[in-house]
Amino acid sequence: MANVVLESELDLEALNKTLDGMDAAELVSWGAETFGESLVMSTSFGIQSAVMLHLVTQVMPNIPVIWVDTGYLPVETYRFAEELTQRLGLNLKVYQSPMSPARMEALHGRLWDQDNVEALNRYDYIRKVEPMQRALKDLGARAWLAGLRANQTSHRQTLGRIAQQNDIYKLHPILSWHSRDVYKYLTTFDLPYHPLFDQGYVTVGDWHSSRPMTDDDGDERATRFKGLKQECGLHLHLPQTQGEADSLNSSSL
Q1: Which tens digits make up the pLDDT trace of 90-104?
Q2: In whole angstroms, what is the distance from residue 16 CA to residue 169 CA?
Q3: Residue 230: predicted pLDDT
Q4: Could you confirm whether 232 is annotated as catalytic?
Q5: 3-state secondary structure at position 180
Q6: Which of 84, 135, 232, 248 is catalytic?
Q7: Rounded distance, CA 203 to CA 62, Å?
Q8: CB neighbours of 24 closer than 8 A, spacing ≥ 6?
Q9: Dihedral sign (CA 240, 137, 7, 13)
């Protein structure tokens, strides 16, 4: 595969005009040719994760797949992860916080249950952001494939097919996809939704911060984090310190 292109050679504005005309598989292929072995992908093993995992591994079967396991995922997520890992032969790289859930709760309490954004941000930094930072560094990542879709949050509506987050390039193959596109892909390739989809979940993360969608919810992300915030921090600017993480309030994005 090709070596990573020097950062100075990438004109994101011009590239987005070019990449906008590519379909999802073509964008993945472009990423593979451009970044080679420094291209990684992430997964949450969420409701529709089978789409990106299948799409990307058809082009790059051995791409490192980063999974940040918070230690608080539903039983169904762990079983779904095992099913997809075996079925797709994933080169799975599991990362976790060096602080165990029990130790975190002893020192900081049940951060998800304190009904304030600062506590949620601290939780996200400990359990999600720090492990992801470490994963990207360990794997020498220069670019990261993520399955974000523009209609999921207002922040994601501002993204292009290629973006930059700290010093990492982010590629978004399915950014313009809608639910019907996801459904069509899953049925075409006989891929499963997450098991909790049948219980009314449209997005799922940790067991304590996810719930089924109701008629009163304005959008799917309202079912996460008690509606206090839309993003966990992984797909915003990755904070470099705990203090920076505490100041990150994505609820207005």
Answers
A1: 999 999 999 999 999
A2: 12
A3: 47
A4: yes
A5: helix
A6: 232
A7: 27
A8: 55, 173, 174, 177
A9: negative
